[in-house]
Amino acid sequence: MRKRRTFSKEFKRKIVETVVSGQASAAEIAREYHILPMSIFNWKKDYKAEKFFENDNVRVRELERLVGELTVENRLLKKAKNVNNKKIKREVKNDNN
Fold first, then answer.
1. How far is CA 81 from CA 69, 88, 89, in A?
2. Spatial contact of 8 and 15, defined as CB atoms under 8 Å apart
C-alpha cells in the first residue's frame, strides 16, 4: 500500500498562485508534480477561502489589536497633556494678576 503524500501550505500556495497567474495550467502542474488535478482544484478553493493564510491573519489581527491599544493610549496622553497645559496657563495667569 502506498503512503499518502502530504504537501505543505507553502507548496500548495505556490502551485495555486502559479495556476491562477496563468504561468501554467492546472493540467501542466499536475503532470509535472504528479498531483491529481482535483487536488489542485481543491487547493484553489482553499486558497480563495484564505486557508493558506491562517497564520498571517492571526498576526494581522494581533497587530491591529495592538494598534488600537496604542491609539487609545495616545489619545489619552494627548488629552492629559492638554489638560495639564491649560492648568499651567491658568496658574501663570493667576500669578500675573
1. 18, 10, 12
2. no
Q: CA-to-CA distance for 95 and 97, rounded, in angstroms? A: 6
How far is CA 17 from its chain centroid?
18
Q: How far apart are CA 95 and CA 92, in angstroms?
A: 5
- Model pLDDT for residues 17-64, shown as the tens digit of each residue: 999 999 999 999 999 999 999 999 999 998 888 777 766 666 777 778
Q: Sign of the CA dihedral 65, 14, 7, 27?
A: positive
Q: How far is CA 88 from CA 31, 37, 79, 94, in A?
A: 77, 73, 14, 10
**Residue owning grid cell 496658574:** 91
